Amino acid sequence: MAAAAAAARRLCALGLPALPGARGYRAAVCTQLAQPLLVQDLPAPPLQPRQVRVRVHYCGLNFADILACKGLYQDKHAPPFTPGMEFSGTVTETGENVSAVKEGHRVIGVTDTSAMAEECIVDEKMLWQIPNSVSSEDAAVLPVTYGTAWLALHHRARLQPRETVLVTAGAGASGLAIIDLAVSVFQAKVIAAAGSDPKCQLVLASGASHTVNYSQDSLREQVTALTGGRGVDVAIEAVGGDVFKAVLQSLAWEGRIVVMGFAGGKIPSIPANLLLLKNVSAMGVYWSRYQREDFPLFSSAMSSLLQYCQEGKIHPHVGAVFKLEEVNEAFSHVLQRKSTGKVIISMK
What we know:
Helices cover 33% and strands 26% of the residues. The chain is an alpha/beta fold.
């Protein structure tokens, strides 16, 4: 069986048709870096012990997927490969020694790649059951964006009730997740920065107390005015470049800044004197690394988020839904900064 599985995986990686009698499924395949993805029929390999086969309903699209397909992500993947790190779906088959889930269970799952397909095989420990009251669409939004937001606010920044949070790229998927969790779960106040007036209106409707359009106004001056000169307790920064420096300068005494990404394309340097003058702390949050370094914490985040969703405390924002055949249009939608909230790929 191991030899057959290996052969099936080789065929799958090469995008070759399935062997006679083998089941197949469709997947988005990066056959060449920095080129459009192809939707291909791939063979379904047999399960190994502790593996689970899931019929994917929705796959979350992340900027990391786009970078991976360009060869620019920190975790490199050699073509051909199928992108996609998170999904929601239904268990269709379980391998030997699987006890956490059963056929028919609705689940969310996490994987390094391969989720942007009609079918995905993962280890059972990377699956969490979706409560009956939570939709598959909402569930697909939780692992990466809300997982990152939870780790940034709870584990890294140690956000406390009534503290003030500044979040950049506030209308993006992670930004809206930060706002949702900070306000609804952590009982904090949020100032959200975004790059256009419509996006500023969206973050206000999503729970932010104040907003700053940093394409028109000085972020530092606006934050100073909004906080009465004190600054913010916590900043979650996802843009980089000059925005990062303005955010760092907007921290209060003993404030904390968490680096979440560099959507603006420029990785900033940190002037150490700015850390010294206000006794501030600068740190990062790298979601997928917690899978390897602290899985109990990673799993706890997933379980907590599903519970918050079940209790109606958080409300994931799905900005756009694309079909699998429209995967390249979905990538362009994100790259052109047309997206607000989470973009998901539907396999239905």
